[in-house]
Amino acid sequence: MALVKGDVNTAANAATVAVENNSLLARRRVNIRWTPRQELEHEYAILEIQAITNQIRRLDPKFNGIAIMRNPREPWTRHDVQTYRQYYNQLRESRGIPVLPIYRMRINNGNEFNRIMSSKYPYNELYVANPKSATGYFRVDSYDPATREIISRKFTQFSQIQESTGIGYIKEAVRKYSPGTVISNVPSTPTTIRGRKLEGKLILEVPAQVNPIPQSVLRAAQEENVIIRDTTGRIYK
Fold this sequence. Notes:
Blueprint: E1 2-4, H1 8-12, H2 24-29, H3 36-59, E2 68-70, H4 78-94, H5 102-118, E3 123-129, E4 137-144, E5 149-153, H6 163-177, E6 201-206, H7 215-223, E7 226-230, E8 235-236
Parallel strand pairs: 5-6, 6-7
Antiparallel strand pairs: 1-2, 3-4, 4-5, 7-8
Helix pairs in contact: 3-4, 3-5, 6-7
């Protein structure tokens, strides 16, 4: 075991997901093989650690990881995530800031996940018309007209939520961001795409799923022509 401080830099670049010790290619060069489940757990843990790290750095901009006794050749786990969560809670308490309840932490992690993944797309937080309101808007997470991808994003594990909630995520994306929805003419929208319509595939982007997605959710996605795709590029059918 080695004392590793700064492994968090893996997380700090979670969109590219690779420091030397933990990247897939690096592991294969030295013949380190993880099971498929370890790969999935690692990908999910890295994203959550990055989300927590971003929140820690708002309180402590010099934060550069936690010294953890761990083998750098082994995947990050839920235990590592919990270590970062506890550190963040302790930091808040030391600054006289109330500890966040779990539901609020999940919301914040989702917001950070959105920021992490937005770097992969040319347009983010794009306002689109709400057909039921003359003055209201919806906001699509990301959009790439070149690849024809309309992105709705959820930081969730479908196996850990109600099936009805997962189906609701799909129906929400269809209701708000379906192809043909008009891009709003507001100051934050680049002039080159104002008034145009969203074109392409509607994608629900999620972290790598550690456990199978319920069949009812997959059926709903198929019926609504929504692609469920994780951050590694895997499509769930």
